[in-house]
Amino acid sequence: MSASTYLLFYVNDPQRSAEWYAQLLQTAPLEASPGFALFALADGTRLGLWKQAAVQPASQQAAGATELCLMLDSQAAVNTEFARWQTLTLPVLQAPQDMDFGFTCVTADPDGHRIRIFHPAA
C-alpha cells in the first residue's frame, strides 16, 4: 500500500489551535476552516487539527496519551527551540534534559496534546 502520513489531533477550537501551531511550527496552515486546519511538517507528514465535536465516529479520548515527536539536528537546536518556546510562554511539561533516547523537552498545546522535541543519543 502506498500512502501519505497524516496525524490528526482532535481539538476544541481548530482556529485557536491553528494559531498556536503556526507559532510552534513557524509556518502557516495549508488549509484552515472553522472545523479543521492542516499543516505540513518538514518530513512530508501532515498534521490535522479536527474539531472534536465533529469527529465521526465520535471519540471521547483525552489528549496527552500520545505525543507529536520532532527530531532536531543537535542538542543546541533543542536548547534554541526551547528558548523560543519560553518567549511564546508555552507550557513546560519537561525542561531540556538527557534521557536514554536523547536530549529532549516537552510542551503541550491548548488541548493538552504533548509535543516533544529531541536530539537522539549518540
TrEMBL record:
It comes from the Bacteria. Residues 3-120 form the VOC domain. It comes from Undibacterium luofuense. InterPro entries: Glyas_Bleomycin-R_OHBP_Dase, Glyas_Fos-R_dOase_dom, Glyoxalase/dOase/EhpR, VOC_core. This is Drug:proton antiporter.
